[in-house]
Amino acid sequence: MFKFYKKSLALLFIFSLSFCVFAEDLVCKTKNGSLYISYTASARQGDIFSIKLIAKKEPRANALCKVSDAKASIVRVGYTKSPASGDCYALKDKTDTYLCLLPIDSMLKPGDFNLKVSGNFDGVDFSKEYPVSVLEKDFLSETIELNASNTAIKTNTSEKRMAQIDKLNKILFSVNKDAQYAAGTFKPPVTSTRRTAFFGDRRVYAYSNGKNSTSAHYGHDYGVPTGTVVSACADGKVVMAEDRISTGWSVVIEHMPGLYSLYYHMSKLEVEVGQSVKQGERLGLSGSTGLATGPHLHWEVRLLGVAIDPDFFVANKLY
Ligand SMILES: [Zn+2]
């Protein structure tokens, strides 16, 4: 009884330390080697599932067996459509490991899912399924009152704004398998911990004309004065640094295939597109440009186009 109690306490401790609970399994075995999988067994709304395929060589085999066409997806039990799917890619710094990160939209209904993993190992096709679950997370609800000028930004359907949205989406949905810059945990972009809005807030925008719209807030807002230093949350490459109608002076950094961080409403940019940045390196100064009801920094993280809670990457290593 006591032993069981101690074990449960230890498990509870491990669980509360990290959002991730990992499971492992042998996926495929040939005469030349074995392929193992390590995956997150549960993830909260707005977090990610992390899937790692690890190839091991038999002592007599000449070389490490190749993994090709490996992909992963989650499918709700009883359904066929997948709300999250992606390809596994070979890690540059761990040649025996293939990684796939799957985003869980903060709006996805919690429940039981199957993680499907398939591909080819050493010339043999494999396909496996594992039960995983999406857990509920609490989100705040808020109403944002927009004055006439902010209403004009939010309802702006000009060609210029639509082109800006298209350009950003093209970046956020692109997956460059060679873009591997960050491996560890992220660091928040400002030293202040004062947040005025949170990831996943269920928002109602009340327009000055009496109409309204609803959406989830895609990032965290830090209530910092204009001129506060903003730094890169992790190593990466700057893929956007420009003034946009809705988000003001904005920076987007690519960290891993399909994984980007975004910084909005800045007053000054100090980086250019194509530049490599290190974690903690200055990107510029915060401000209140674009659609802002006051000075703040909006910090957002996207994986395969889906907004993910930036705190997940602060608490958990990428791999
Ligand atoms: Zn925001």
- First CA to last CA: what distance? 36 Å
Tally of DSSP helical segments:
4
> Strand-residue fraction?
over 45%
What is the subunit arrangement here?
A: single chain
Number of strands: 22
Indicate the overall shape: globular
Mean pLDDT: 92
What's the architecture of the largest domain in CATH terms? Distorted Sandwich
Helicity, as a percent range: 10-25%
What is the assigned CATH homologous superfamily of the largest domain? Glucose Permease (Domain IIA)
What top-tier CATH class of the largest domain fits best?
Mainly Beta
Secondary-structure element string: HEEEEEEEEEEHHEEEEEEEEEEEEH
Number of domains: 2
* Sheet/helix structural class: mainly beta
Q: Which short descriptors sum up this protein?
A:
Immunoglobulin-like, binds zinc ion, disordered N terminus, mainly beta, nine-stranded mixed beta sheet, ten-stranded antiparallel beta sheet, 22 strands, 4 helices, 319 residues, Glucose Permease (Domain IIA)
Describe the secondary-structure layout.
Blueprint: H1 2-17, E1 21-29, E2 33-44, E3 48-57, E4 67-76, E5 84-87, E6 89-90, E7 97-103, E8 111-121, E9 124-135, E10 141-145, H2 148-154, H3 159-172, E11 195-197, E12 202-206, E13 212-216, E14 219-222, E15 229-231, E16 236-244, E17 248-256, E18 259-269, E19 276-277, E20 282-286, E21 297-303, E22 306-308, H4 310-315
The structure holds zinc ion.
What does this molecule look like?
The chain is mostly beta strands. The chain has 2 domains: 134 residues, Macroglobulin (MG2) domain (Immunoglobulin-like, Sandwich); 175 residues, Distorted Sandwich (Glucose Permease (Domain IIA)), CATH 2.70.70. It contains 4 helices and 22 strands. The strands form 3 sheets. Strands 11, 14, 15, 16, 17, 18, 19, 20, 21 and 22 form a 10-stranded antiparallel β-sheet that branches. The two termini are 36 Å apart. The relative contact order is 0.15. The N terminus is likely disordered. The structure holds zinc ion. Zinc ion binds next to strand 14. The site of zinc ion has 5 residues, from strand 14.
